[in-house]
């Protein structure tokens, strides 16, 4: 499985708190679901390009 997110970026975004190792996997899975929904929406609308409105 390909990781979508970089751990350093997640740590930067969550400044001020520690980030547990299981958080990265859960967040990565959620982002993949979001991407898949956006792809489906773009395809349902006859497009091959995902746009912000698909999120």
Please give a quick description of this structure.
The protein has 55 residues and is an all-alpha fold. The chain has helices at residues 7-13, 21-44.
Q: How many runs of DSSP E, i.e. beta strands?
A: 0
Main β-sheet description: none
Low-confidence stretches: none
Distance between the termini: 22 Å
Helix fraction by DSSP (H/I, runs of at least 4): 55-70%
Shape: elongated
Percent of sequence in beta strands: under 5%
What is the count of helical runs? 2
The string of secondary-structure elements, in order, is HH
Tell me the structural class: mainly alpha
Nearest-integer average pLDDT: 93
CA gyration radius, whole angstroms: 14 Å
Describe it.
- This protein is mostly helical and 55 residues long.
- It has a domain at 20-54.
- It contains two helices and no strands.
- The protein has helices at residues 7-13, 21-44.
- The longest helix has 24 residues, at 21-44.
- The two termini are 22 Å apart.
Q: What is the topology?
A:
Layout: H1 7-13, H2 21-44
What distinguishing features does this structure have?
elongated; 2 helices; 55 residues; mainly alpha; 56% helix; single chain
